[in-house]
Amino acid sequence: xxxxxxxxxxxxxxxxxxxxxxxxxxxxxxxxxxxxxxxxxxxxxxxxxxxxxxxxxxxxxxxxxxxxxxxxxxxxxxxxxxxxxxxxxxxxxxxxxxxxxxxxxxxxxxxxxxxxxxxxxxxxxxxxxxxxxxxxxxxxxxxxxxxxxxxxxxxxxxxxxxxxxxxxxxxxxxxxxxxxxxxxxxxxxxxxxxxxxxxxxxxxxxxxxxxxxxxxxxxxxxxxxxxxxxxxxxxxxxxxxxxxxxxxxxxxxxxxxxxxxxxxxxxxxxxxxxxxxxxxxxxxxxxxxxxxxxxxxxxxxxxxxxxxxxxxxxxxxxxxxxxxxxxxxxxxxxxxxxxxxxxxxxxxxxxxxxxxxxxxxxxxxxxxxxxxxxxxxxxxxxxxxxxxxxxxxxxxxxxxxxxxxxxxxxxxxxxxxxxxxxxxxxxxxxxxxxxx
Length: 436
Prior knowledge:
With 436 residues, this protein is mainly β. The protein folds into two domains: 32-183, Sandwich (Jelly Rolls), CATH 2.60.120.260; 215-425, Jelly Rolls, CATH 2.60.120.200. Helix content is 0%, strand content 42%. The chain has no helices and 23 strands. Strands 1, 2, 3, 4, 5, 6, 7 and 8 form an eight-stranded antiparallel sheet that branches. It starts with 53 loop residues before the first strand and ends in a 16-residue tail after the last strand.
């Protein structure tokens, strides 16, 4: 089996128009969700883990919304001496079974489960967007071995365990976990000897092509905060608000609001944006999944209104990659101003739009390319074009940035941001990808 620890970037300072005050940054906010993945030609044996009352299913990968250096892959190594840990209620760990399967429960071995009872709930999803809660309860607090928690059988691909606190503190800590294809009543087995907690010391590194991890970052707002992102550029917290409705997936989405005069960085235009210092290396290749919905009141204006952009590290000029609204069209422009409009479609309000953006980052037009899916259909076949400016890496900005001549309030919703190296990690397993 493969295990990879990947911490994406440290918080980097920016100058000029790209500068904003750090906000909502926790110690692990730059730690990317980690994927544990079985090699393509084999499955991972979980036989070494005893799960009373559970017929185990083997997950293909696992991610979480953060960790303290004890990575989520540890919960799939059949070793009760290792664990995944994260501080805070709302911490979650999410298992991808690789395909739609019948699931009737989960078996969880809580780290130091004989010393504390954990409150949690279980949610399932067929596509990684829409989650349904199927179980809520508490561990026994009497054993550090696996306990099985049953619920009515459901067809699903992803199984997520969300921690809600425990009887001693607010540390989420799971030694092992398995989804179950069938269950029976569980009797807590004899307790194993508790293992002392090691002190992790992970080494951060920038994501590099081919280093083994596929999902390198998730910015889906399921922390009920902006902590998955590097920092903000906003005039006040209400302009980049976490909301429970409307949602595309999970329990929270981002509501970005811009009013005339909003200028948090003393630059051109009006904006309120989240920033993620992705800084993709030259010749790296990624898939980005994100969902966007324009409010029914979103203004129509014959000028630019950016909702997603990859900005260059320079402090002037148009970004090399920008998704924006012009009048009643959504457009993708590559190459700055004037650049090249490589794709356009009519603006739709009040409905979630699901994007998958496939990019090879390069200043060389013979090497770099873009490809775009919308709602499961290829709408822009692979097109070779320069996606970076020479000598400058890009970083991601999401929210709303528009011409300062626009008067009406603008509202855009964002959800489900995922950055990965493989298409299968950003598509719904039930989606049929169609040719243009």
